[in-house]
Amino acid sequence: MKQYPFSNIHTHVFNSECVPDNFLRILPSKFVRRVPRLIKHILDTKWARRTIAFFARLGAKKDNNKRKAFDKYIGFLEVATQRKQLDVFELEFEVGKQYDSSVRIVGLTMNMDFMDNRPSRHQITFETQLEAVKDIKRYYPTNFFPFLGIDPRHKSGTDLVNWAKSYFETGLEKNGIIFPYFSGIKLYPALGFFAFDPRLDELYAYAEANQLPIITHVTRVGSQYIGSKITELIPLTPKSLSNGNAESVAAMTEITNRISVYYNKKWILDNKLGDNDKACDLFSHPQNYIPILEKYPNLKICLAHMGGSNEIIDSNKKDSDLKQIRRVDSQLWCDRIRDMMFRYPNLYTDISYTLSDLDNQQVKAAIIQFMNTPDAQGQLLAKRVLFGTDFFMTEQEKRESELFKLSQVELSDFHDIITRDNPQEFLRQPL
């Protein structure tokens, strides 16, 4: 039986130049949210990072665990602020080659041009970012498989499809094989839109017809809309591309009811600091994909992160925000994803970022139980779980090489399935 290339299905290559000035408002710190531009400007300078690293290590010299934590955070900053996108990719590539010289790495681009309603002075536009990504593909046509970031505020309907075609239907030749510049679609709804937005309808139809897979962010944490006008993005009754069948109607009813509760609890409020943490969970909710899956049953969608570690096991005992949320949305997102995968045979998930907690025995046990669950056809859900790390976001947790080894040891029974067989089926790339 032919062995498929080792694949990391979930990485990022963007750097500090690609994000808006107020990007650091994604961090839940009132101080940072008051002066995000200043802090970002400071961190973008090499001398500042070295000064931070010096004092951090000095303060933690008697605490080995703290010193390691600071080292990892500084490592994250070094990747994010110092390197070009090509350099970021090559850091990941070097780790992947240790497992397979023909390693495939999926780079997920994100359109961050609309995550803030205020202008940004130093941000390069998304389309400029994409040109640098195409350059990486030219250097590594058989190893790098970027996904095109989509946002309906950028383009919509037929215009969106026509724009996207230029990335999916052009490419380069290697050994007689044509490799498109982009191999799939990346959604990051927490930046300020719902996945069921009717403006995306034509794109989903195009993706289904052309077997383009979709990877979308599904956790309660991560990047999010940091603007001051969140209420403009969350109407009480959002429009949907729903086909009107019973499953879609039931899902949209629950989604609408959840929005109403969030408004009543004042979790959706315009504010100057971009404090939209709870509100942006509404964009990321796994239930939002039911209308899409009902309308486009042959569309491959990966709900990333398995919902997130705090949605794999109930970790709300120490988190007051989660305690409040559980009263409104009691089912863990991981359980929702499992139930949806049981119903929809083209629905996938990945373990990116979440795998950094594989050394937590409760998280590990829950992931293994998830993968050992049979679907409606009797196939284990493990056949639709993908390996990904979320590099370089995870540099704050563990080094990339640590994550590879951790998954290899803790998920040894499934490792070849999730790193080789499943990615081949999901990506459908020529060998």
Which structural class fits the helix and strand makeup?
alpha/beta
Largest sheet composition: 6 strands, parallel
Record field, number of beta strands: 10
Portion in strands: 5-15%
- Summed up, the helix count is 16
What does this structure look like?
The chain contains 16 helices and ten strands. The protein has helices spanning 30-34, 36-43, 46-59, 64-82, 85-96, 126-139, 157-168, 201-209, 246-264, 277-284, 290-295, 320-328, 333-343, 361-371, 400-410, 415-427; strands at residues 7-11, 104-107, 147-150, 171-174, 177-180, 184-187, 214-216, 301-303, 347-350, 385-386. The protein is globular. A six-stranded parallel β-sheet has the order 3-6-7-8-9-10. Strands 1-2 form a two-stranded parallel ribbon. The chain has a two-stranded antiparallel ribbon with strand order 4-5. 42% of the residues lie in helices and 9% in strands. The chain has 431 residues and is α/β, with parallel strands linked by helices. Mean pLDDT is 88; it is low at 65-70. Strand 6, helix 8 and strand 7 (214-216) form a beta-alpha-beta unit. The chain starts with 6 loop residues before the first strand and ends with a helix. Helix 3 runs antiparallel to helix 4 (64-82) and helix 7 (157-168) runs parallel beside helix 8. The protein has a single domain (7-427), classed as Metal-dependent hydrolases (TIM Barrel).
